[in-house]
Amino acid sequence: MTARLTIMSDTPFGTFFVPGPTEIRPEILEQLTRPVMVHRNKAFEAMFARIEAGLRDVFLTARPVYVGATSATGFMEMAVRNAPHGKILCLVNGGFSERFALVAESCNRSVERIVVPWGETFDLNVVDDKLSSRQFAAVAVAHSETSTGVLTDVRAIAEIAHRYGTIALVDSVSGAGGAEITVDGWSLDFVFTGSQKAFALPAGLSFAVASAEFVERAKKVADRGFYFDVVQYDKFAEKNQTPSTPATSLMYALEAQMGDIGREGIERRWERHLAMRDATIDWVQSVAKRRGIDIDVVATEGSRSPTVTVISLPNGMAPRELLDAVLARGYTLGSGYGQLRETTVRIGHMGDHTVDGLRRCLHACETAIAELAERRRLTRV
Ligand SMILES: *Cc1c(COP(=O)(O)O)cnc(C)c1O
Questions:
Q1: pLDDT tens column, 113-136
Q2: Does the CB atom of residue 20 touch ligand 1 within 6 A?
Q3: Domain locations in the chain?
Q4: Torsion angle of alpha carbons 76, 82, 88, 93, nearest 10°?
């Protein structure tokens, strides 16, 4: 008898706008109920090969894409542990890029930071100045900083880094699969992401690409550890395998999602995300203007992520109250993160969401905001 499962859901797709984990379509979730498989055999290797073809088209690389049973922070640690010995320059503009620096320090790496205010990206001249000292083995940067909604030009950062013999480690956890990234074309040395962001999959898988040179240099890093050894990942990927037990049930969902992403096309997927970003920003500006409510986009103009928008609220409007008022209308937003927790909310417009679905959510957000603003006005009088 084949197992059958009815996905119990009283809400249609398009109600959960958190910037990770993101909403998963029922047909993808259903894959998790398929019978368990053995992985050291041809059937698994054939599935792995099909998944690889899809992942290469997402990352735009000819290199193998590693699939790990870990949340993305595991692959952040992989980036650090396998990087050539020497100082790491960490570009910090939010909670996740700061985590990258903390991971490096906890792995006993000597770290220097360039810190800019949350909401901003980096002045390339400052980065160039710093790297031109040729003191750094690697630079670590967040492509899409999920705590602020800022997109950083990682292509430019990698170009500068390579000028001075430094390699680029890129956290694209809320980027890849939603925001444009071209691993080979931009010569990125190590890029990683997680399944529960723009890939719109269950949490628990991470994906990474390392350049051939990165893997070669990792062989000389004696203390690179065991679980996240990039040399082992690379060797096993060659054989369509993983060094330790793969999360096969999650990979069923991954294979199905790779098929759908392939049918959409990665460029079209990037465009859909840009359209969702623009719709969100237009909406914020229009609410501020039409209703005279002081809400704003945290990320500076020109560096706004296609996958997540962080919105600052008027003085005295508590994020928790707004999240509850939006939830009462059937939609879930993300709370603010780190130092922006008490002043912002986050809208994750990534994964399989559409502009139309997002507009319905924004409409609900608007009535919620207007209600809270009115209540605030009344209590003031
Ligand atoms: C979510 C996120 C992480 C952490 O990923 P986990 O899967 O929670 O370990 C790291 N960096 C960025 C930019 C993220 O958005």
A1: 999 999 999 999 999 999 999 999
A2: yes
A3: 15-24+266-380, 26-264
A4: -10
- Residue 249 CB–ligand 1 contact under 6 Å: no
Q: Give the H/E segment covering residue 78.
A: helix 72-82
Percentage helix, strand, coil, to 5, in the chain?
Answer: 45, 15, 40
**Is 175 within 8 Å of 144 (Cβ atoms)?**
yes
Taking Cα atoms as reference points, which of 247, 240, 274, 256 lies closest to residue 199?
A: 256
Report the separation in Å between the CA atom of 96 and the middle of ligand 1, taken as the mean of its atom positions: 7
The residue type at 264: E
308 lines ligand 1 (CB under 6 A): no
The matching CATH number, chosen from 3.20.20.70, 3.40.640.10, 2.60.120.260, 3.40.50.1820, for 26-264 is 3.40.640.10
d(CA 249, ligand 1 centre) in Å? 21
In the chain, the amino acid numbered 380 is: R
The model's pTM: 0.97
Which atom of ligand 1 approaches the CA of 172 most closely? 13
